Sequence to fold (72 residues):
Amino acid sequence: MSKLMNERLKKYLEAEEAILNGQSYTIGNRTLTRANLATVERIIENLLAAGATTDDEDTASRGSMKRVVFFD
Fold:
């Protein structure tokens, strides 16, 4: 798979982790969110479906695969 696609997947997984660790904040009575978790999860799913992986190229060439399952 494309190294660029794998790098993109890694960045989206990092973004998901940041969101889950609290990327919203409150000013007065307004709560603001810096990123949309649903959008990030959808893009991660699309990248995985297209064959992106977080494995290094050497491991990926041996047929190794990782799967991420999201629960609501």
Q: What stands out?
A: The chain has a mean pLDDT of 82. Residues 3-20 form the longest helix (18 residues). The two ends are 29 Å apart (CA to CA).
